[in-house]
Structures
1.
Amino acid sequence: MAEPLSPLGHAFITGDHGNSAGGVGIAITERKNLSIVQVTAWRETVPAILTAISNVTGLSVPDKPGAGRSAGEKSVFGFAPGRYFVVAQASDLEDRLRKAIPLETGTIIDLTHGRMAIRVKGPWSEWVLSKLFAIDFSEHAFPVGFGRATLHHDIHTNIQRIDEETFDLYVFRTFARSFWQTLGHAAAEVGYHVQ
Amino acid sequence: MTASRLPKGGRVDRAKTVRFTFDGKAYSGHPGDVLASALLANGITLFGRSFKYHRPRGVFAAGSDEPNALVTVLSGSVREPNVRATELEIYDGLVTASQNRFPSLEHDFMAVNQLAGPIFSAGFYYKTFMGPAIGPLRSTKVWMFFEKFIRRAAGLGKAGVTADPDHYERMNAFCDVLVVGTGPAGLLAAEAAAETGAQVIIAEERPIAGGSLLASVELIDGRNAAVWAREKAAALAALPNVRFLTRTSVWGYYDGNVLTAIEHVSDFKPNRTKGQARQRYWIIRTGKTILATGAFERPIVFPGNDCPGVMLADAVRRYAVEYGVATGNNVTLFTNNDSAYEAARALSQAGVNIVAIVDVRADVSGACIEIASSAGAELVLGHAVTGTHAGKTLSSITVQHFNAQTGHVSGTPREIKTDCLGVSGGWSPAIHLASQAGGKPEWDEDLQAFLPPEPNQNWVTAGSAAGYMDTVSVFSDGATKGSSSKAKPKLPSVDAPMFDASPAAVFQIEPAAKSQKAFVDFQHDVTADDIRLAYREGFHSVEHLKRYTTLGMATDQGKTSNIPGLAIMADARGITIPEAGTTRFRPPFTPVSFGAIAGERYGDLRPHRLTPMHDWHLANSAKTYEAGLWHRPMIYGSHGETVEQAYVREARAVRQSVGIVDVSTLGKIDIQGPDAGIFLDRVYTNMFSTLPVGKARYGLMLREDGIVYDDGTTWRLSETQFLMTTTTANAGNVMQHLEFYLDCIWPDLRVHLTSVTDVWAGTAVSGPKARAVLEACVTGTSVDNTTLPFMGIVYGSIGDVPVMICRLSFSGELAYEVYCGAGFGTQVWEALLEAGKPYDIMPYGLEALGTLRIEKGHVTGAEIDGRTTAHDLHLDWMLSKKKPYIGSAMKDRDGLADENRLSLVGLISLDNQSINGGSHIVSDATPREPADSFGHVTAACYSPALGKYIALALVKHGTSMIGNRAYATDLLRGKHGAVEIVSHHMFDPEGSRMHG
């Protein structure tokens, strides 16, 4: 099977960058081999969708705006009313969701090729991301597991908080290289490692 | 004025030396100095030349209210003008220069402007350059002649012309409470707020916290006030729920409790660490704002008040107490209020010699008398300064008897030798941010100043900003405003005499015999006479006053001039100051660099959008251009080839054999749900619910007003799923249009929309050999005419990459669009090229794509321009008569059915010359201006298929004009040529090639 190409091209340079002499403030990773599927419920079928997602992924997500869960490489989070990202390292993720979710319950669209997944991890992750996005990254406003849909520079981005200092960003593929470079500029102050 | 460093005192680190230059001359100072204090310590008192008259000016204030001491900071080829010397922290290697002088600060030729003072009075530009024509003199032409001289003669610093190499960034912050200012009110307000557990941000524009406490000689809880403030600030900064920002000026207050601030991150350092921004632009969203912004001392306007050596009294105190600098050997204070006596006490303790205190009031308190006595200063009550004597700096002042009630000056002038005059005309709460937030400031008779307006958002003012002028009251107000509790706050003890904060209502000293100019706005050279002239010429409103005289419009935004200016206008009109009113303050409170606002968008103002095959294009000689945010190949140029030669070669290859083009940029929207077909029937003019699964259809959308909105093909992937394609440019708009209708107009429809533009890489394979290319590389499906007819869809693989292929044509040739997951786009593109090698397959760019569609008469955004109807574009065959759709109700209104409307035609050049896009269609063989245009060219090219230059055009009575000769005229570019009007279907009008 052909390997999908990263949208980053020459912009992906591993190693330490920016003000890293005294250590790095964050690590940035391109997450690969993921399936990224969007599941959307009808107005009255949110509970049924969440049950189906739980059955497929094992991740139980409460019916709250933006709520989500993650475990290892699997994650689920809501980012709009009735709309969820389901992410896993499983090529059959879309098929399994499609079987579990009939049209009466909701719709499914595989966005794997349309999004690039970036993990930002480190003690300065909130600081760096706050330079780019006009949302509150503090943990009381953006709890672990929760997701957000927001914009940077006209680039739509979905963000999930994985733990206190780790965020997963899902960026439109065609903007990914441009965003990656902007992220690097924002992180240069605290030093960053690309892996 | 003979300024010097005092033997002791100040916060500067005297053990260390900092070296810098001013106007090319080397100086030294100490860490903790600002440029103003360091230069004063070196005996420099001349800092700049004034805006219009080039009068010598010295330091006037000690903070962001400074109107005079503006300098340019030079760094290599980069220059930053109009930096306030009173705030610019010195560092080793700092290079600065004075402004608005030629050839030097000391000897400025343009000082001759002072002789022409009456000419440059209020309304100079309006009277001189916008008046009526007199004889042969048309005022605009006079202006055009003199403009360059005037711009050289007047102004502030000059902006640089080289790119700014610095790095700026933005920061978004959220908090429960934002405290602006860290004087006594701000510190206690922040402490009280933090104690409630709230998330608190504290912003202080200076390098250290303390505000007025930094120059105070009071004892707070038994300790030096500045030390107390430093300890309090450190304790606050250590709290986990507090973010303490220094060197951060909050400059804008917007709706929704959004405030903006500028943080000087590293522009006070000789060397920046890697990646460190110079300045950071903060956007702070807060639940509550506490504006503890303090108060500005204001001057008294009197003749000769602008010479170097005349300063605000508080500034004299601050240079002595904070920086250990005496601004004169023999200082005099001139006041209408008690605060000058506090300054006198501090100056005396700092070792500064005070000659006299001139007070307009006939009586002052015993405490004031005691201070004057202990400072050894002569107390001159009931007098006012009526003149100054100075060369480039102050040598003496003239005082006369003054009646504070009547404003009458009398008696024999008396001269007092002094080299520094500290003036205090009372204090004005810094209500700038509160004014920006909204509401009308309220006049306070006691303070003779405007107080903040009633809040219309969740903000409060605290301390001096709220009108409390003594430290005890300020502490109390700050603690109360920061707390959510009604319990009486515990306050620090203050050991200081109480003064009366109320000034005498004296704003200007106007002796009967005028000899010197009396300045109100130092930065824009606006005098008291200018304000009275504005009144006499009918500009009575404060808004008119501001614009006519430029009072308060410079970089200092009138911090020292607004109240005196209003007072003089009120006096001229015979009304009170509150009756005269005040203008509303606008952002920014202090100047903000464009770099900081641009933030991380340096180098480019927008992101770049790249197709999956972008790197391949660049590696294979593509010349790209920007189409919206996208970067798209224009041509794949060979060495020495012109753009026209390249696109002709590429288009010819498509007509003769086969070519491929990257169409990944087309907008793509996934439409799913049981009502998807019904939804499409409503948004498209033609029917989609009847479209069979596995087929595509060309669709047309109208706006609500019946004008064409967008077009594209939509593919039915299943009974309940469609893939809509839109034009590249309109993808986002169409998505919003559809979402609006689903959310707001037809919420009952069960349809979901998702943008999938980025999911798919798209390659169009076009030309007579297109099928042969697919047959050579596609597996899992046949692509013959039966399996894949025109507008059919099949699924297969190229290599091991799954692909979806739809047979449709924009070029007019046998053509297919091959879609695959975007991550596989390059692999599929290369596989198609490999399969096409036997047919000399050629990649083609947007220019060839445009050529092929012009030959065919297919429309794009150039024709769907927001003005054309389906009928104009000969697309009325797509308008269903069986169903309503968006725009159907309005499409037949009279204006859209007018027979005089422009409609689409083709043009063929008759002189074998190219036709310029945008040319007008006229009937005259001779170019004329103005010409009677009856149409315009929308797109033009050289057609390799026809061997001619051709174009598409929108022309009045288009169809009936076919066969006529006309002229395409482009007077801007000097082109005028004969054309024949033909059908827009200029090549293969029967469509036999694409159906073959």
2.
Amino acid sequence: MLRFRAFRIVQWLMERLPRPLAYALAIVIARFAYLFARGARRALEENLRAAVPQVSGRELRLITWNNFRNHSKAYADLMRLPRARVEELQPLLHVEGMEHLEAARAHGRGVLVVSAHMGSWEVAAAIWSATIAPVSLFAEELEPRELLDWYRRTRARLGISVLPLNRAGLKQVIKALEAQEMVVTAIDRDILGTGLVTDFFGRPARIPEGPAAIALHKGTPLLPVCVYRLPDDSYQAVGYPPIVAEPTGNRNEDLRRVTRQLVAHLEEIIRAHPDQWHMPHRIWEHANYPAEATAKVTS
Amino acid sequence: MKIGLVSPYDYSHPGGVTEHLRHLGGWLGQLGHEVRTFAPSSRRGAEDEIRDFYRIGRVFPLPANDSVARITLSFHIARRVQEILERERFDVLHFHEPFLPALPLTLLSSSHAPHVATFHAFAKSNLGYYYGRPILKQYLKHLDATIAVSPPARDFVRHYFPQLDPCVIPNGIDVDRFRPGQTPIHHLRDDSVNVLFVGRLEKRKGLLDLLRAYQYLQQRVPRSRLIVVGDGPLRGKVESFVSSHRLDNVVLAGYVPAQVLPRYYCSADIACFPATGGESFGVVLLEAMAAGLPVVATEIPGYLSVVEAGVDSLTVRPKSSGELGVALTVLARDSYLRRKLGQAALAKAQRYSWPMVAARVIEVYQEARETRRALSEKEAEPSVHHSLPSVG
């Protein structure tokens, strides 16, 4: 409750400030988080070390700091959504690879957009939903409940349906896909801990197999998409060629193959923008995380 | 035809008249007419976003009719208006709420084009009309044809200006935008009965009555949800009512972008409009009906000119949360009745489609031009006779 109160106070302020000031505040908050949320910082550093092993320790720290900054700005964007006029946000979203989306749509089985927790994907999805086409989000249930409700309301205002990662949610996802809609999900973190152990940046990690399973079962094309922030604080969304899963008969092997294919795409995307991969959580099973990193941090 | 549409209200602020102008302008443009829009706007740069838009005057929010009218009081705009009029040479100028200061009144007195005026408002009384009558009377002769959006709006304006006889042309709705079967907001579309309210959160929209009625409904039909679309000054009060009465399943969606709004109608089972008065029409009612929703509305003149009780809606007395609660409960329990009313509503909404409305407005334009032509011929004749003796 206390956390939600604090969130609402910052949110109240963020949505009333002009955008540049809101970002300035976000950077101040990022500074504090960087200094005091040590667990999150170390977990992020550890994850980034795996993603971009070639960089020096100093560079890695710089990337981590930039990542905190961008993450905080992404939160500022999210907090500003309740008052945002989407019509004014629209020019801020640049889209590349629209033809891949069209190609995926042409299959007539809906589109499952697969992404990582990157950039201001919340805002990108919101702009997309309010101006181009309906979007459903297949996403984790946040704690506490008030925060979840706030997220839901904020997204729903912009036409985004938020479907929980459970059986009921899955049913609605399939219904939405059958109605030719677009469903967005991020697979770089397995909240439920039931995913398929897959090679992720050369280390075994649990990756949700849901998208691959839906693709194999329903023939839905999977569209890897990445969203990142440009230096002028506008958003770039890039679509990649869709992956159409062909079942070969061996279900487990198929799941592994398709999931790995998706992860390969995400690796490439993350390597290109390590400062925008907002993942201050434990994702690898046997990685060398500090003990604090396993504690739940602000997600 | 070259048509100028004139609005007294802030164009960058959503509202009934503004929306009306936007659509009417759009449809007239599609029918091949050249359309310009005059309005004040609180936002600079509005000209760049909207085509053929003249932004004239600064905006002042004035409390009126239990709401806030955002109009301009800049009277020094006459010169600029004059320049534009000379350059554009309109075939028709169409005023919306012609007697509001300052933009419509200024244009009305400086233009010589045929004038059509539409009256949107309805209220118990209008002190501005009452006290302004002696002055406003002089403007009456500048109007060649008048339109009212509903019988109550017509009666209202005739109460103050009996010499006017407006024809009733209803507001239009975009039946392509508001139609059944669009993608709902999935997480609202479970097995609950969803009651939808759309409107500004202000006193006269009666939302607090609806909240009390919803409390009644929740006790009888626990699987129900109230979705409130819109924002406004009453928001804090609504939020505190919800939390202090521990109302479950109330979704305060806030201001929803235009493109998403139809999907909210498609996520609902019942639309409820409990306004306490001061409504001359009910565009939201028609939007809901066009989405095939049964309507629960209050018995106020503006709404009654749109809905037909028992055919496409259930109606209750205004400010009576008890009756409202009963009506909602009856509908929430009876899916057959909802379907039946919804189908009738859908059929009726088609009669209010914009192409039909725009065609009728154009007829009035023609009428106004003929009136004006006849008038100027009449004026021209005596002046010729008059000038002859002076020559001789």
